[in-house]
Amino acid sequence: MPNKYFQIDGVATFVRHTGPSTLPDQPPVLTQGRTIVCLHGAGGNANLFAGLLEGLAQDHSPLAFDQPGHGRSGGLDSLGAIDRMASFTGALMDKLGLVDPILVGHDMGAAVALECALQNPGRLGGLVLCAAGDRFALSGAALDHARRVSQGKERRPFDPGQFSPETAPDTLKKAFMEGMKTDPRATYGDLQACHEWAPGDRLAKIRVPAVVLHGESELDEIKTRATALAEALGCPAPEAIPAAGHALLLEAPEALAERIAAFLDGGLA
Fold it and tell me: Where are the alpha helices (DSSP H) in 121-264?
């Protein structure tokens, strides 16, 4: 899959896209259908969207990028705050000259998408919010464990309970390996940012077509918060993607691509 680097706010930023590439420092060709920008979750990277990008590429122009300190982008640390990540995303959209893009956010990326909508009223064409809600429920114990991992005092966690029982072992292995691509310090910064994100009543100010999705085996707490998010945005109730849990990007990319394509065809009218 084609990829390019762009300097965004002084950070070498890795962008994965579909369709023809272009000369260095020139935006990729994004003329097919709608432009879709995919935003990864805490400790994630753009490669988690590879299957989704392939599923959407026939009719649209999807891309994904690594936030600073993640995957193949420059830096070691997370930007440390959801609003800063949203501002960085806005700077990337400016660099690529994007008009009326659709933002697809997973986990932390959904919060970044929501902040982008608040920072850029009237600029976005729609929001697809996956595996997230109106706030994050992170315990102090979870944050402390992430801090200890970042200090080399604990092993990186991997919770098979976040996946559907139907998920193949190869997918579990891929999820683990993708998580290894980001330094634990950046992941800890992400989790701190999620813990501190509290949009509250501001979400009601968002006036962008939106759809809220999660895996049918998603954690109950996230399902509850996803329902609250849909209510805050005034959009339909969350929809469940079969045979998927929290990692629906890897577990069911084809089904997710079909649902997003249906939203683009009918939900933006």
Answer: 140-150, 169-179, 184-196, 220-233, 248-251, 253-262
Number of domains in the chain: 1
Per-state percent for the chain, helix, strand, coil, to nearest 5: 45, 15, 40
Return d(Cα 4, Cα 27) in angstroms, integer: 9
Residue 26 CB contacts under 8 Å (≥ 6 apart), including other chains: none
The torsion defined by the Cα of 118, 41, 15 and 58, in degrees rounded to 10, comes to: -90
For residue 94, the enclosing domain spans 3-267
> What pLDDT is attached to residue 25?
81
pLDDT per position as a tens digit, 26-78: 899 999 999 999 999 999 999 999 999 999 999 999 999 999 999 999 998 99
Going across the sheet that includes 3-8, the strands are: 3-8, 11-17, 61-65, 35-39, 102-106, 126-130, 210-215, 239-241
> Does pTM surpass 0.85?
yes
Copy the structure tokens of residue 20.
């023809």
Here the CATH number for the domain that contains residue 212 is: 3.40.50.1820
C-alpha to C-alpha distance for 73 and 39, rounded to whole angstroms: 14
Helix (H) or strand (E) holding 96: helix 82-96
DSSP bridge pairs for 127: 103, 210
Instruction: Return the H-helix or E-strand segment holding 85.
Output: helix 82-96
What does each C-alpha distance from 87 to 40, 116, 264 come to in angstroms?
A: 15, 7, 25
Measure the CA angle with vertex 99, ends 95 and 104; round to 5°: 90
CA angle 19, 132, 56 (to 5 degrees): 20
Hey, what are 171's tokens?
């997918």
CA nearest neighbour of 43 among 203, 123, 162, 220? 162
